[in-house]
Design brief:
The chain is an all-alpha fold. It is about 65% helix and about 0% strand. The longest helix has 22 residues, at about 15-35. The radius of gyration is 18 Å and the shape is flat.
């Protein structure tokens, strides 16, 4: 919340250096959150998609089931439906935070940074990115969970809350 508010303020103040620094920190925090979420199988995108694929009787059906599983937690259908239900079923899941939400934020922050540097404003088509993401397939060797939650939580606590400049 503090980083986000500072990021917004830096943008409005047109402080490019500060905006870029805070963008980097914001995206790092999302990667760290993803690492923490990935320690628990119940918060794993890959558990969700792997389970969907296992229900299928063919590769074609597995791809369709995974597409449906990805769609349920992101877009819910067409662009028009997405406009009405955008992020309706968002989840804080490992893999999803990094591969979907973080990349979406990175695209947005990169565009804002470009605008601060004088590039023309442009409308980003997040639906196109999100739609493309739902057609991806889970790799067979995708890790369901990894790491120790206490070690990663301690790392995050020290990185963002206990170590001060």
């Amino acid at each position: 919340h503090v980083i986000y508010d500072s990021l917004v303020a830096a943008y409005h103040q047109q402080d490019v250096t500060r905006f870029d620094q805070l963008s980097k920190t914001f995206l790092e925090m999302q990667a760290d959150l993803d690492s923490l979420l990935m320690t628990r199988a119940e918060f794993s995108l890959w558990k969700w998609t792997t389970h969907a694929r296992k229900l299928a009787q063919s590769e074609e059906q597995a791809n369709q089931f995974e597409f449906n599983a990805r769609r349920l937690i992101t877009l819910w259908g067409t662009k028009e439906a997405s406009d009405l239900l955008h992020d309706y079923a968002n989840k804080l899941w490992g893999g999803l935070s990094k591969d979907f939400y973080r990349k979406r934020w990175e695209t947005y922050l990169t565009q804002l940074s470009s605008e601060l540097r004088g590039a023309p404003k442009k409308e980003l088509d997040f639906y196109a990115f999100e739609d493309q993401w739902t057609y991806q397939t889970t790799l067979p060797d995708q890790v369901i969970s990894q790491g120790d939650e206490l070690d990663i939580a301690t790392y995050i606590l020290n990185k963002y809350f206990l170590i001060r400049e």
